[in-house]
Amino acid sequence: MRHLLDTRTLSRDDAILILDTAEDMAATQQREMKKLPTLRGKSVVNLFFEDSTRTRISFEAAAKRLSADVINFSAKGSSVSKGESLKDTAQTLQAIGADGVIIRHPASGAASRLASSGWIDAGVLNAGDGTHEHPTQALLDAFTMRRRLHGDASRGQSLDGVSVVIVGDIAHSRVARSNLWLLNALGAKVSLVAPETLLPFGVREWPVTLYHSLDDALATERPDVVMMLRIQTERMHAAFFPNEREYARNWGLDDARLARLTERAIVMHPGPMNRGLEISSGAADSPRSTVLEQVANGVSVRMACLFLLLSGERPQSERTEG
Hints:
This protein is about 35% helix and about 15% strand. It is of the alpha/beta class. The strands form two sheets. It has a five-stranded parallel sheet, with helices on both faces. The chain has a four-stranded parallel sheet with strand order 2-1-3-4, with helices on both faces. Mean pLDDT is about 90; it is low at about 315-320.
């Protein structure tokens, strides 16, 4: 695997390989000594042009547990704030010998541009580009679904027949897009729920079922997974719904809706959560919720991605069968 830029072009076999490699990585994290020598001598740069807490820390932890040298780059306080271009930044990283670059950028397509530009020889991993994609978030979500729904038998499993309902700000969500493509590749049935104003242009051409009513979607689909999305007010420059109270009443996962879910159903959220808006505290903190599991699983999934990106093969000698 040379780069990881999106899930739309990720094959079913490659997706399962990443998820299974993440199982190997998760097994090593149960040991007293969590650090592996796998990427010793490799340099990984966290190139973040947008603010981030979970993703940046998760990638840093993943790289360090693989013994890579980590360089954290923030656009704030760097030459980017003085007008330096992505090309000049990339060439600087090339000059210092970066082996891998993890990039988060507000412009859709920035990761692909970096990977195809010829400015840098490093492997490129997309940590979120504009409203385009966030592939490792989708992979950690799928990893969490497999573990919750298949338990100890999750290794090698797809998500064939699993019903996933994704609710909320679809228009501005790169997480929704990456999940859609990955879940379809893994055989899941995906439904989207949002007010018309929060659906992106062209959504009716996507392989999904659309709903404007959360209650209708829950009753019709009887989902195995309900994924709530954050309302991204920082990307909104107009009024997309009348007020927060109306949004919570119509599209929020409250305690009453939580109680109507099937016994098997789980609740997911990529974080950070707006409690009381898209999700109630009761739902966020319930045994059905996988929010903290998603954060923990993110380290194992990102370890797997970095391993496959920078070494190109599976860690046979380090595998621990689960």
